[in-house]
Input
Amino acid sequence: MDSRNFQGLPLCLVEGHCKSEAKRELYPFEVKGQVCWDRWYPWNEYIHPFLLHNLSGYRRLWTRLGNGNWKIQLCWVKAHIGIPGNELADTLAKEAAANIDIMECYNKAPKSVVRSEIGKKSVEKWQRDWVHTTKGQITKEYFPTVADRLKVKINLTNNFMTMVTGHGNIRSYLYRFKILETPLCSCGTEEQTIDHLLYKCERLNKEGNSLRSKVMQTDTWPTSKETLIQKHLKTFIKFTNEIALDKLNEVTNPA
Ligand SMILES: [Zn+2]
Output
């Protein structure tokens, strides 16, 4: 729901109060001296938090109108059957919700709502930055969506971090920083990159076969890094825990 819509209801009530004072004839209520609502629905479950927060304002208004000889009763009414006050509130709410010029204001909202709205906007901004950044290309292949990443808890071991970032104890990375003289994998076939370790390295046949056979129960192989995370996270984590990167790199690069 667009956050503008949250403001529709309180705005319609505020405006409705103003209009009601001018069009008093729309509300021919009798004095009942009571407030009626369905006893199975407590206020705080029944009313949007924006409105709930503003109740003290409505109480003051209620008192003021009462002192001005208004006769006020709150009760449930059926919608869209032509009750003038309800139709007016409905019209005003729709107008307010459709008005893009209305400032979004959170100063009357409960902290929990503000926190939730800010959280959503932060993730949206994070996603935009994530899409546009030229950094973290390998990680982006595993985690293209920030929101999806935030949904899963992962124990971040050294091997896992190396495999999802490309930064760590792999030869292409160490070669890039001039720590090794060659990026060639100890299997001797090609550069030791993340893709090589994941899909091709002959020295990781055992671990790779285990990963591949599990994935192929439901997907084709080679599968994307995103699918590994989305659908085979446990199996992928097991793979990262089983591969011994230190040992793999020791063989062709003795101290
Ligand atoms: Zn290899």
Q: What stands out?
A: The first helix runs from residue 3 to 22. The pocket of zinc ion is lined by residues 185, 187, 189, 192, 196, 201-203 (CB under 6 Å). The two ends are 60 Å apart (CA to CA).
